[in-house]
Amino acid sequence: MVAECATQPDIQVPISGIGGIENWQDAVEFMLMGASNVQVCTAAMHHGFRIVEDMIDGLTNYLDEKGLNSAMDLVGQSVSKYKKWGDLDLNHKRVARINQDYCIHCNKCHISCEDAAHQCIEFYTESDGTRALKVREQDCVGCNLCSIVCPAEGAIEMIEQPSDVSMTWNERQRLISVFGG
């Protein structure tokens, strides 16, 4: 919704990002898509107002890391990459890959994938006898749940999978209407 508003040239009021903001990364995503401010409600109810201080600290560190002077420098920077759902590539695929050098073996990725996603993360035994986790990439749908629940930075990476054919939902619907379905 934020990007929809940001792409409309006749909307000249500040856009406020609301709904699902739980950390500084969420706030940055809303701002990149055009929100000049964000609001937090449920997350503050769950975690208290300390969450706002954590967001400010995280955002400040992010801005420093990116060499930006102000949070306003983020506003709208990703709007040009926004696509309506009908224009998204149906054949776009990403899969999760676990980096054993960063994995802390908490098994949160396995639990979330097993119980709420596609059951494609499995245990295996390495040559030294230690147990590790691996993604069956052919079964992974790229939902990103495993990387969201993973507390170890860099342990799970989402890898682009090349596709020979690109087709959007709009193109598919057009072909069905022309050739029948």
Give a description of the structure.
The protein is built from seven helices and six strands, in the order αβαβααβαββαβα. It is α+β, with helices and mostly antiparallel strands and 181 residues long. It has two domains: 2-81, no CATH class; 91-161, Alpha-Beta Plaits, CATH 3.30.70. The strands form three sheets. It has a two-stranded parallel sheet with strand order 1-2. Strands 3-6 form a two-stranded antiparallel ribbon. A two-stranded antiparallel ribbon has the order 4-5. Helix 2 packs across helix 4.
Q: What is the CA–CA distance across the termini?
A: 32 Å
Which range best describes the helical content: under 10%, 10-25%, 25-40%, 40-55%, 55-70% or over 70%?
A: 25-40%
Tell me how many strands there are: 6
Specify the overall morphology.
flat
Q: What's the number of domains?
A: 2
Mean pLDDT: 93
Question: Which radius of gyration do the C-alpha atoms yield?
Answer: 20 Å
Structural class: alpha+beta
Number of helices: 7
Set out the fold topology:
Elements: H1 2-6, E1 16-17, H2 24-32, E2 37-38, H3 42-47, H4 50-66, E3 93-98, H5 108-116, E4 121-125, E5 131-135, H6 145-149, E6 156-161, H7 169-179
Parallel strand pairs: 1-2
Antiparallel strand pairs: 3-6, 4-5
Helix pairs in contact: 2-4
